[in-house]
């Protein structure tokens, strides 16, 4: 079925994205059309915005382009396990090429969320004759929706966290081996950043450097209000990134505290369901034919900086990956407590890393930047002076989408940052 869907999505023309539903009839039609085939098409629409993308690697869209991008399904060792992958590769090779960069999305999202970052990354690929890969985590996006379960008892926090982390990081290691990559630079967002750190701790010889965008699970204590992921509006305009200062960090924390004081009953219910093992996507799926309208309330509000056509395409993409079979999403209550409080905070583990680590937060982020600040200091105390932290103006949690220019500039800077042999 997956192969047939990919073939259908790779045809020369694609249907335009349907309108964002505002009435029951539209919601019903949208719900009825979701599935593997339309999921592939919704992803393809976003990817075809890239001039260097080709549905068929054997026949690139522009043979003269210095880079070419295509998507593929990478089968893992376990039968039925695979990771949906987009590869952006240089058409030339170089022995001095830096390790490829791997884009890793956040909780319940997918690689399509990075489509506004791919052009800048493709420029880096062309200049450095390297590669960039974007993956869907196992059990999320358009990767295999295999059963997710944890055998450890609820009181065994270490066991629950370790099992949940292994589900993701071991599949990433399996993918790396299948792709024949020796080292990688991991660029992770939110929970994807959390898993990137865990992977680097477990397989340190495989990671060149880490770039963590609004990482989850870093500090001790509650990190913020996760319901802001649903209720926030995209900040308007662009602003440059700046090195994090104590004053800026305190400003972000003050905004977070103000939001907590006005916490609504809906947010409290959100936290309760989280602790009970429900996922936000399970709640959305429970709305059945009304689910497209529920998702529409999010996508219409959250991505106001996109064009009308892009917003429709993002909505259709989000809807399809949200309504797919529940799988990896059920990790959340094992790894994070309500308020995105990590059960095993990264700040207590990160000092073991000997590589460059970059933290990037949005000016209006709901992730607590104090975690990044403390982590950079922990790294320094452990003899690793390659920790850095930045704050991007006019951006919230989806900082790479809210202010792509500033983030893309940072990515280019950090990808080219020299790695110290003394770290």
Automatic annotation (TrEMBL):
It comes from the Eukaryota. Keywords: Hydrolase. One of its GO terms (molecular function) is lysophosphatidic acid acyltransferase activity. The keyword rRNA-binding does not apply. Residues 102-404 form the AB hydrolase-1 domain. One of its GO terms (cellular component) is mitochondrial inner membrane. The keyword Hydrolase applies. Residues 222-231 have a biased composition (Basic and acidic residues). Residues 218-244 are annotated as: Disordered. Gene3D superfamilies: alpha/beta hydrolase. GO terms for biological process: cardiolipin acyl-chain remodeling; lipid homeostasis; phosphatidic acid biosynthetic process. Belongs to the peptidase S33 family. ABHD4/ABHD5 subfamily. PANTHER family: PUMMELIG, ISOFORM A, RE40534P-RELATED. This is Alpha/Beta hydrolase protein. It comes from Schizophyllum amplum.
